[in-house]
Write a structure and sequence with these properties.
globular; alpha/beta; 10 helices; 7-stranded mixed sheet; 9 strands; about 300 residues
Length: about 300
């Protein structure tokens, strides 16, 4: 599906997700009341259209200045599918480092700073892993609306799965209770704020973390030791790094695209170096690049 054409291409769940995010911003801007977006999902590795939507919430394209985004998901140690976390880290770095840059360089991002949402990323406390705790929730709070369903906030739910969901409008009492539940998880340390961990991450940091995860897999699953024997581990980690850095760069490109795109699809304004802005078609091509990287993964 092209970004913005989810419904016509049969991606109804994702269409509602994007519209719900945009609506939460619009309602809060009109009411001038703070509101919250909560993405509470077992697996968080956003498809390109959700990257674009979240980017629009922090890059100034949408007026989301009264919105707080809260993302909660599994840690490597609590998930039953840690491959998602491995690649999601690169994407999260693209999103959160750009968000951090906007907040720190106010003079360079005036519009974004006036309109941007705040964003926090939490993982379940690894201390719970010993008790077998693993998150399998799939709930989205979108201002006063809620989606409860089978779709995780990951690329598999976009490309591979058939999902069902219930979209509940104006569920104010449910939203209030659920937000209180989220606050209790944070207050009790059930989830850990990892936002700052992704503000700036260099290549060597990812490589070291990938090596640690590989060793964790070997200890947890004896079969992994054979699969990663000899030079296989080094070859696999090299591919992970290559794909991961591609994911990170494409994520950042999608988020930054709107600095130069105009809604009518014509060339946007030149950037600070005089280079011509991107076209709307370029945004779709970036999305396609992300999609292509996902398939071999």
């Amino acid at each position: 599906s092209k970004i913005g054409s989810e419904s016509s291409h049969g991606k109804y769940y994702h269409s509602l997700w994007v519209k719900g995010l945009e609506n939460a911003c619009a309602v809060s801007a009109k009411s001038k009341q703070r509101t919250r977006v909560v993405l509470h999902s077992a697996y968080v590795f956003f498809s390109s259209n959700l990257v674009n939507a979240i980017g629009s919430m922090i890059n100034g394209r949408w007026n989301c200045k009264n919105v707080d985004i809260v993302i909660l998901t599994n840690a490597i140690e609590t998930t039953d599918l840690f491959a998602i976390n491995i690649f999601a880290r690169y994407q999260l770095n693209g999103i959160l480092s750009y968000n951090f840059m906007i907040e720190k360089q106010k003079n360079s991002f005036v519009t974004a700073n006036q309109n941007k949402a705040t964003i926090k990323y939490y993982e379940y406390n690894v201390q719970n892993a010993a008790s077998g705790h693993s998150l399998h929730t799939k709930v989205s709070v979108l201002g006063d609306d809620v989606i409860v369903g089978s779709a995780n906030a990951d690329v598999r739910s976009y490309f591979m799965d058939t999902n069902n969901g219930v979209y509940i409008r104006n569920a104010k009492s449910m939203v209030r209770d659920y937000n209180q539940y989220i606050d209790s998880l944070i207050a009790k340390g059930e989830v850990v704020d990892k936002t700052a961990s992704f503000n700036y991450v260099d290549t060597s940091a990812f490589q070291k973390e990938n090596d640690r995860i590989a060793e964790y897999a070997i200890k947890k699953w004896p079969s992994a030791a054979k699969a990663l024997a000899g030079d296989r581990k080094a070859k696999l980690l090299a591919k992970v790094q290559k794909w991961g850095m591609g994911i990170r760069q494409t994520t950042e490109n999608i988020i930054k695209a709107h600095e130069g795109i105009r809604e009518n699809g014509h060339l946007g304004e030149s950037d600070s170096n005089g280079a011509p802005g991107l076209r709307a078609e370029d945004l779709d091509e970036m999305a396609n690049q992300f999609d292509k990287m996902w398939k071999p993964i």
